[in-house]
Amino acid sequence: MEVTAICRLALAWAKKHEYFGYSKFDALNSPILRGIAGKSAFLRSAFVFGMSRTPLNIRPLLLVRKKQNPKGLGLFARAYLNLYCIFGETKTLEEALRILNVLLSLSKRNQFSGHCWGYDHPWQNQTFFIPPYEPNTVVTVTVAKAFLHAYEQTGHEKFIDICRSVADFLLRDLRDIPVGAGMMCLSYDLQSDWKVINVNAITAAYLAMLFSTTGEESYAEASHAIMRWVVSKQTEEGAWFYTDPPQASRITIDNYHTGFILNAIDDYALVFGGEATKHLKRGLSFYKTFLFETDGAPRWMHNKPFPRDIHGCAQGILTFTRAARYDKSMADISHRILKWTLENLYSQRDGRFYYQRGRYWTKRFTLMRWCQSWMAYALSFVALESFRNGKK
Q1: Same domain as 14, residue 160
Q2: Could you tell me the CATH number of the domain that includes residue 18?
Q3: Is the same domain home to 36 and 90?
Q4: Are residues 152 and 53 in the same domain?
Q5: Are 201 and 223 in contact (CB under 8 A)?
Q6: Which of 175, 178, 182 is nearest to 203 (CA)?
Q7: Average predicted confidence (pLDDT) for the chain
Q8: Which domain range does residue 56 map to?
Q9: What whole-number distance in Å separates Cα of residue 8 and Cα of residue 376?
Q10: DSSP H stretches of helix in the chain
Q11: Residue 303 shares a structural domain with residue 387
Q12: Distance, CA of 248 to CA of 264 (rounded, Å)
C-alpha cells in the first residue's frame, strides 16, 4: 500500500501539470540555442549533450518550453492501467484513456504506413538529426505498448487495430539493415543506419506480444529474426553494448538500456520460450553485479558509477521485480533500489522524483518523462506484482 500511495502521489504531481514538463534532451526547444546553433550539427549536438549534464536546470533561462513528451505519456497511461487492474476504479481508467487520446492526436499516421510517434523536441546526436515529432522506433514502441495494454484491459478492438498499424510502420517504413542470414535489425530512425541493440530488443518483444494477441505469423517471424540478432550481440560476460559496432556511440554498456534488453527478452520468452531464457539469466547476472551497488544505488555504466540516474533506479525496480519469477532473491534487489531511490532522489513534500545524484551534488529538478513517468510506471508495476502475488 505504501508503494501504491507513492505512485498515486507521483501521478497526481504529473497530472497537476497536465504532463507538461522538460525533457533530458530538449535543449533545442530553446529558441536562443536554436538560433545560435543554426544548421551546425556540432553546435546542436553540443547544446543537447551539455543541457543533459548541467548541474542546475537552466532551461527556464533559455526559454525552453515545457511540452508533453509522447514517450512519457505512454508510460503514464500504463501506470494508470496498472492501477486500474488492481483497484478497478473508473476514474483511473478514464485518465488512462484520456492520455491515449492525446497520443492519437500526436500520431504521424497520415504521413506513414501506420501509427508512429517521435520526441517532442529536435534531437541532434553525433550521428543524425531528428526534427520534433518525427517518428522513431523507441518512442513508437513505448507508446504502442500502452495501446496494447489498453486492449488487454478493455478488449476494445480499436486498440488492437492501432497496434497492428504500429507494426505496419515498424516493418515497412524503418530501414531493414543487413546483419546476416536469418536475422533482422531495424533502424532507430528514418534517416540513419544506426544499429541500436536495445531498440531492436523492445521491437522484437512488442511483435512477440502482438503475435500472442493476434496469432498473425508475420509478427512472429519478424520477432524471431530481430531477437536472433539481439542475442547474437551478447558479450561473453553477459552484457550488451548500446550499438553495433560499440564505437558507434559514446554510450558503452550502461544501466537502463541493459534493463530494456532484459525486459524485452523476458517478454519474448514469455511468448516463445526456448533459448531466450538462457540469455536472460546471463544478462541478469551481469546487470546485478556490474550495474548496481550493494545498497541499491544504480551505476551509470558498468565501469562508471556516477551519476546515479533516476532512470536507472526505475529500470532496476522494473527489471528485478520481473526477474523474481525466476529467482525470488531478485525481489530483494528491487526493494533495495526502491529504498535507495526514496532516500536519495525523492521529494516527500510533493511526490516528485529528482534527476540525478552526482558524486558531490544532487540535481534536485524533475524532468517529466525521464524522472516522473518512469518512476510512476515502475511503482505501479511493483504494486501490480504485489497484488498478483497476493491473489495466488
Answers
A1: yes
A2: 1.50.10.10
A3: no
A4: no
A5: no
A6: 175
A7: 96
A8: 27-63
A9: 8
A10: 2-16, 31-37, 41-53, 70-87, 90-106, 137-154, 157-172, 197-214, 217-232, 255-272, 276-290, 310-323, 330-344, 374-391
A11: yes
A12: 22
Say how many C-beta atoms besides its own lie within 10 A of residue 306's C-beta.
14
Same domain, 319 and 376: yes
**CA–CA distance, 210 with 164 (Å, rounded to integer):** 8
Q: pLDDT tens for residues 297-327?
A: 999 999 999 999 999 999 999 999 999 999 9
d(CA 201, CA 216): 19
Say how many domains are in the chain. 2
φ, ψ dihedrals at 202, nearest 5°: -70, -30
Sign of the alpha-carbon torsion through 39, 41, 46, 47: positive
Q: What are phi and psi of 298, to 5 degrees?
A: -80, 140
The last residue of a domain, from among 12, 41, 63: 63
185-186 and 129-130 beta bridge pairing = unpaired
pLDDT digit string, tens, across residues 3-61? 999 999 999 999 999 999 999 999 999 999 999 999 999 999 999 999 999 999 999 99
For 182-214, how does the pLDDT look when each residue is reduced to its tens digit (9 = 90+)? 999 999 999 899 999 999 999 999 999 999 999
Instruction: Tell me the per-residue pLDDT of 261-301, one tens digit each, with 9 for 90 and over.
Output: 999 999 999 999 988 999 999 999 999 999 999 999 999 99
Name 353's bridge partners: 346
Do 115 and 185 reside in the same domain of the chain? yes
Asked if 230 and 275 sit in the same domain, the reply is yes
Among 34, 39, 18, 59, which Cα is nearest to 355's? 59
Residues 238, 165 share a domain: yes
